[in-house]
Structures are given as C-alpha cells and as structure tokens.
Write a structure and sequence with these properties.
This protein has 22 helices and 13 strands. It is an alpha+beta fold. Strand 9 and strand 10 form a beta hairpin. It is elongated and about 125 Å long.
Length: about 550
Amino acid sequence: MFNLRTWNQIKRSKQIVSVLVKYGLDYFIDQAKISFWVKIRKKPRRFQELTPPKRLRLALEELGPTFVKFGQILSTRPDFLPPDFIRELEKLQDKVPPFSSFQAKKIIEKELNKPLEELFKKFETKPIAAASLSQVHKAILPNNEIVAVKVQRPGIKETIELDLKILENLAGFLENRLYNGWVYQPKLIVTELKKAIEREIDFTNEAYNFERFRINFKDIEYIRVPKIYWEMSTSKVLTMEFIKGTKVDEITQEKYKNVFDAKKVAKRGAQAILKQILEDGFFHADPHPANILIQPLATIVMLDVGMVGYLDKETTFKIAEFIQAIIDKNLEQIINCLQGLGVVIKEVDENLFRRDLKELLDRYFGVPLKRLEIKKISEDMLKVMVGHHLSLPSSFVLMLKALSMEESIGKKLDPNFDMISTAKPFVKKILRKRFIPQGFLKKGSILFQESLELIEELPGDLIDILHKFKEGKLKFNFEHRGLEKLITEINRSSNRISFSLIIAALIIGSSLVLQQRVGPFIFGYPAIGIIGYLIASFFGLFLIVSILRSNKWR
C-alpha cells in the first residue's frame, strides 16, 4: 500500500543515489544495473580528480548526520572496507549545526516529566557540543552540582530507521548483482551498522557502559569516568557529571608544555586500553581523540562510550596468545589463535593462506619490537584474511581497531612510544593465569563440587532406572546418522532385482509359450510369446539405461 512513509523512502532513496552519482560513486550502482537511478545526475568534473575514499567521505557529509554516524562506525571496522577508505572515514567529524534550545527543553521536559525550572537551577541554552545524534548542554542541579545533559536530536530515530531501510534495500541490490570477485559483503556491513547504531541511539546503553567503566577503574586514580544521574536519564536524555579537560590531541601544543606530561599520558592511555581488553573483557571500541580529555598532569577522562566491545575469558586468553604469537612471529600459533577466536574459513585454500601469512610475517622478521606497529600489522593481516574470504568476529576486529587508535594517539604524544612493549607485561600476566596454582585450585574446586553432586544424585537415578526396567517402561532411543544414502541405495538395488526377476519370468514364460505352439500366430510363432519377448526387451532396455545413468554399472 502506497503511503507517506513509502513516498518518503522513495524521495530519500533518490537523494542518496543522486549524491553518490554526484561524487562519482555510481560504479557499484552501474554494476548492480540500477540504470533508472544512474541517470539522475551527471558527475561534476571537479570531483573526478579526487580519490574514491575522499569522495565517499564528502558524500557521507553531504547526506547528513545519520550518514556521518554510519561513516564513523564504519571507520572502526577495517574488515569491511580497504585501509585507504578507513583512514579517510576516520577524518569524519560531526560538523553539525545544533538544533534549537527550545526543542532541547521540550525533549527534556517530556522525557523527565517535569518543567525545566524544577529540574535545574541553571540550564545553558547554548550547547557546549553538537553531534550527529545529539547535543550537550551544561547545567547546574538544585544542589549546585554541575552536570552535562546529552539530548537526542529530534526526529533522528525515525530518520535513522528510514535510512537503514534504504541501505538494506540497496545492499540487497549490490550483493545480488555485483560480480563475484568483490570480497566485501554489503548486507553484512549494513547488518553490523544497524546493530551498532541501534545500541548507540539508546542512551540507556551508554549509561550502563559508563557505570561499568567506573567500576572497572575504581582503583586507578589516573582514570576518571563521569558519574551518571539515573533519575535524570532516559533513552533520549543522559545526565552525567560535568568534567573539565583538554582534548588529548591538543596537549602537545606549546602553551601546554608545562601543564601536561604527554609521555605519561601516552603510556597510561595504552595501559588503560590493554586493561580493558585483556583483564576486563569490556573495552571502549572508539577511543578517538574527541572522546578523551586530559587533566594536568596526566589524568585521563573518558567521554562518549556508546560504542563498546565485549570479550569472554577464553577469548582474552586467545588474544593474549595471538599478541604473543605476533611478537614471536610464530605462524602456526597465529593460525591456531585465529581458529580459537572463531575465524570461519569458507572454502579457503589453506596452503595459500599459510603462504600469504608466512610472507607477511617474513616482512617483519628482524624488525625491533619498538618499530613494530599494531596498526600496520593488523591492517596487513586483515587484508590477507578478507582476501581469503575469512569471516572475522566483530569483537576481534573492534579490539584490533581500539589498539590501533590508542597506538596512533600514543605516537602523536610520544614519538618513541611502543605499544607492543607496553602490551608484553599484560600478555605475560594473562598467560600465566592459566598455570598458577590459584587457577588450578579454582578449576579443581568446581570439578570437586560437580563430582559431589553426581555422587549425591547417582543412587536415586539408578533406582529410577531399575524401577522403569522392572515395570517394562524403560525405552532406548537410537538415532541413525548418515544412513539415508545407504537406505536409498538398498531400495534402488531391491527394485532393480525385482525388475530383473520380472524380465526373467517374462522370457521364461514366453519361451514356454513358443514351445507349446498355441495360436494365434505372428510370422508362424505364437503371438503371446512374441509379445512377452517384446515386453521383456523393453523392460530390459529400460533397466540398462537406468543403471548407466546412475554410473553404478562398473
């Protein structure tokens, strides 16, 4: 049924494709044979000289806030796009004009069910930050505590839902009609995008993330996480502690020379992300400079934790082994770790995959640890894996990206910063945990408890089995697997044997009739015998053809 939503979707679809064509990104549309959209607008010549990654970034910026957010999320997934595209998307900034303070007030009052005057002693109408999904206002509570109030952009949820629907349809076009050689999967990209942005659009998720980080860093004095005011937070409004600070990428400026210790910030930032990944199994998946503030001398303030990654204990062990294998340049261990991390191999040539990995490792052979960069190694490894159509777990890719981003920040703060050397103590600590007595005691305690439960329940279970056996109620269920083909072959063979017996009977019967010389006659022979021979010949020919077709005649 045609309605306003359908019309909006058509209109927005036309706008999206029009912008893609404008920036010369219509190659994939041409490949998908969407010809009626391709003719919408010709490419201005001024964009033809730009690189495809830059054209993509400009197109996303023109398409508005939701596509800027899509691009930012995509920039955290180097398994979805080539490295040059990822580097360009990392430049995407939320250069979005703020919406009116009147709308912000209305949203706050509706969400919190109170007039603004009752909620805050003072509310600054001019936002201190504006982004694609929200904007932030500074306010003072009745008890004089200073807070930051994050308000969701009006109508943004509906806009995102519409754009996601269009992207899903477009991804379907691309995946069904693109040539087979393209290794990136449009449908999977949109699915992952959808999950990420749906989590981020609900501010309650971010509030829980803040609380969990506060707990994880409660004993580390150089990490500050804003406190959440739950009674003043909903899915569209997030009220948190206001913390002053300087952006991490600004502290190396000359005016801050004696204010901040950049080298210490680099080391602490790396230690913080390694703790999150290898010890907590819960990490900030997008630690770019805009999400990190610094207080003198080297205190780190975490902001905007809408995008996070999760790792279970076994995965953290595998990641520690993976990092150690990279340090040792151990090919077999790297492959074992990838399999343990859930990397799915789909019809991959394992020998070719091993050769490509070996070639990659040889490139870094003999290079000192301080010159090895996780960002470069992970980019090269992801390129090899994607090239072999390996399916990568999102948590693994997010982890590599988080480490790479933190490494980039560290090198800007301290040219001699070395992420791998910083990681070594964490890796050793995690790997040692598998073999220390406490670990064995814990596992032994669990096994002992389970054994006690088994011993306690076993007599009762045996009595139940004996009662059922005595009453004739004991049943055994057998499940046969892989016998379907055997049963089919037995049935086919039985049918052919039966068919052969019928043919033999017809031949014998017809021969007897011919011997009896009983009329009527055809060419001097009994007609019934001749007909019997003809039927037997027809059946015999049919049987031979059937056997030849099934290739079972040899």
